[in-house]
């Protein structure tokens, strides 16, 4: 089978009106990735050799997402929305180049698995002209029905056009199908728009193929895979399914999720061995967690690399560009962005590290802020290995703190500090003996104290 070529056509020209959103439907996210990226990912897993995406006119954002998620894919514009079969023919030029198998997948069906697409291709390799994914729906409202007789798929009937007994048919049409490349165009060109909506239905491929003495097959999959997203409610339901899958995969891979249902993962989150994730942690895109690291509760982690045995949180925020070295510690109420901390470095409390590097074993005290932004541009702070930054210091970037340097607490550091130097940059403490007691005698002060 691997020797067979395969063109995938993704239908993504829908307007998505029911999402009530300015964003194109296929760009909404599930598990941190667009619906379209999920579909393109499943296609990549099923070994397609070329991909065509059919989009609506003027959808530049969709084109950009296609290029990002699947650089080799080609976009075709369907100028008028005249039905799913009409949409497939928008990619006619790609079909004419020829492929053994043609997979047709809806862009709003993000949970479809590569393995199921491979099963469809297998049916084509075994001589079906059309193969369709079907499922048993808990609520079949709105789905087309697969009409099966003697193990043969004989038709797909849209709900509106189906008879009462056909509606009772157990298998629903998932909308994902495969066509044999050699007969695909002949079938698609014979489809008519003689139905209630006056659209060219892809579902007619089955009856047309059979009219041409070709065979059709149904391949059954789990309902969850075929969830089509038309509304925000369905988007939330798909998110729940995707999270269940990702949590299960993490547990299977040996990650300790103390309370799995409270952890939100991204489709690309990567874990090493013996990682512990405490309750209520959210992972965004592009996170890697190495062996033995612990993510404590209520942490929010995006675009971060967490090194071996590192500790994060509770209540930490790691933003894109964070790289924590082996055994590094980022504690409560610490925010890190575009910053590298080397092995054993610590920022345990109430700190902002932005556009910074922190050398091995350096200690950043509570309340330290890297002042990286001057209102116009961002600047870097470099903290050398083994340096000690006293609590409540402001490091005004660009600035370098040398190896082993010591910054007294409460300092506002505006110039570089050499290695092993002590720097104090704070106003002098003024002490006036007895002054507080005298002031207390004043009425106004006594009043304000009692309020
Ligand atoms: C379709 C199927 C139905 C199936 C259901 C599964 C048809 C006629 N019906 O119904 O049997 O049970 O999916 O979810 O295929 N699109 C275009 N251009 C068009 C029309 C649609 O690109 O002119 C795209 C949409 O963006 C969407 C997909 O095709 O991604 C399906 O279209 P939609 O209108 O949602 O079909 P359903 O009514 O859900
Ligand atoms: Ca749909």
Shape: elongated
The low-pLDDT segments are: none
Q: What proportion of the residues is helical, as a percent range?
A: 10-25%
**Count of DSSP-assigned helices:** 11
Helix/strand/pairing category:
alpha/beta
Give the rounded overall mean pLDDT. Answer: 95
Distinct ligands: uridine-diphosphate-N-acetylglucosamine, calcium ion
Report the portion of residues in β strands: 25-35%
Distance between the termini: 82 Å
Q: Using only CA atoms, what is the Rg?
A: 30 Å
Number of strands: 33
Largest sheet: 19 strands, parallel
Describe this entry's structure for a reader.
It is a single chain. The protein is α/β, with parallel strands linked by helices and 451 residues long. 22% of the residues lie in helices and 29% in strands. The strands form five sheets. It has a 19-stranded parallel beta sheet that branches. Strands 5-4-1-6-10-7-11 form a seven-stranded mixed beta sheet. A hairpin with a 2-residue loop joins strand 8 and strand 9. The site of uridine-diphosphate-N-acetylglucosamine has 27 residues, from strand 1, helix 3 and strand 10. The site of calcium ion has 3 residues, from loops.
Considering the chains and any ligands shown, give keywords for the structure.
451 residues; alpha/beta; 19-stranded parallel sheet; 7-stranded mixed sheet; 11 helices; 33 strands; elongated; binds uridine-diphosphate-N-acetylglucosamine; binds calcium ion
Per-chain topology:
Layout (H helix, E strand, L loop, with lengths): L5 E7 L16 E2 L2 E2 H11 L4 E6 L4 H10 L4 E4 L6 H6 L2 H5 L4 E6 L7 H12 L4 E7 L8 E5 L2 E6 L6 H4 L3 E10 H10 L14 H7 L4 E5 L11 H21 L3 E2 L12 E2 L4 E2 L4 E2 L4 E2 L4 E2 L4 E2 L2 E3 L4 E2 L4 E2 L3 E3 L4 E13 L4 E13 L4 E2 L4 E3 L9 E3 L4 E2 L4 E3 L2 E3 L4 E2 L4 E2 L8 E2 L11 H6 L2 H8 L1
Parallel strand pairs: 1-4, 1-6, 4-5, 7-11, 12-14, 13-16, 14-17, 15-18, 16-19, 17-20, 18-21, 19-22, 20-23, 21-23, 22-23, 23-24, 24-25, 24-27, 25-28, 26-29, 27-30, 28-31, 29-32, 31-33
Antiparallel strand pairs: 2-3, 6-10, 7-10, 8-9
The protein binds uridine-diphosphate-N-acetylglucosamine and calcium ion.
């Amino acid at each position: 089978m691997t020797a067979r070529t395969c063109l995938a056509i993704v239908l993504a020209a829908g307007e998505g009106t029911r999402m009530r959103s300015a964003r194109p439907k296929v760009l909404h996210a599930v598990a941190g990735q667009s619906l379209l990226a999920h579909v393109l990912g499943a296609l990549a897993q099923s070994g397609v050799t070329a991909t065509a995406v059919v989009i609506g006119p003027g959808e530049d954002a969709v084109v950009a997402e296609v290029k990002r998620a699947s650089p080799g894919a080609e976009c075709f514009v369907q100028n008028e929305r005249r039905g799913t079969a009409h949409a497939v023919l928008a990619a006619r030029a790609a079909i004419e180049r020829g492929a053994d198998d043609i997979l047709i997948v809806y862009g709003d069906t993000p949970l479809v698995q590569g393995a199921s697409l491979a099963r469809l291709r297998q049916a084509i390799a075994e001589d079906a002209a059309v193969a369709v994914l079907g499922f048993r729906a808990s609520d079949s409202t709105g789905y087309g029905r697969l009409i099966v007789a003697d193990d043969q798929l004989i038709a797909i009937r849209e709900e509106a056009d189906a008879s009462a007994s056909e509606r009772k048919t157990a298998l629903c049409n998932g909308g994902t199908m495969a066509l044999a490349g050699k007969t695909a165009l002949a079938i698609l060109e014979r489809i008519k728009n003689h139905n209630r909506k006056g659209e060219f239905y892809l579902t007619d491929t089955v009856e047309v193929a059979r009219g041409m003495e070709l065979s059709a097959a149904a391949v059954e999959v789990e309902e969850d895979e075929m969830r089509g997203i038309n509304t925000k409610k369905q988007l939330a339901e798909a998110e729940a399914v995707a999270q269940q899958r990702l949590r299960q995969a993490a547990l299977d891979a040996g990650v300790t999720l103390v309370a799995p249902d409270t952890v939100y993962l991204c489709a690309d989150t990567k874990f090493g061995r013996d990682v512990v994730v405490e309750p209520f942690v959210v992972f965004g895109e592009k996170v890697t967690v190495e062996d033995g690291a612990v993510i404590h509760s209520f942490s929010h982690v995006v675009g971060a690399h967490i090194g071996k045995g590192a500790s994060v949180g509770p209540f930490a925020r790691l933003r894109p560009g964070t790289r924590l070295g082996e055994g590094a510690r980022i504690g409560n109420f610490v925010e890190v962005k575009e910053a590298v901390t080397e092995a054993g470095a610590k920022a345990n409390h109430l700190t902002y590290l932005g556009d910074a590097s922190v050398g091995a074993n350096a200690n950043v005290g509570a309340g330290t802020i890297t002042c990286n932004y001057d209102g116009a541009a961002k600047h870097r702070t470099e903290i050398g290995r083994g340096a000690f930054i006293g609590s409540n210091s402001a490091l005004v970037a660009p600035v370098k703190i040398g190896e082993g340097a010591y910054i007294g607490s409460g300092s506002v550091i505006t110039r570089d500090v050499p290695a092993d130097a002590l720097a104090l940059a704070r106003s002098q403490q003024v002490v006036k003996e007895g002054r507080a007691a005298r002031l207390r005698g004043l009425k106004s002060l006594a009043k304000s104290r009692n309020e």
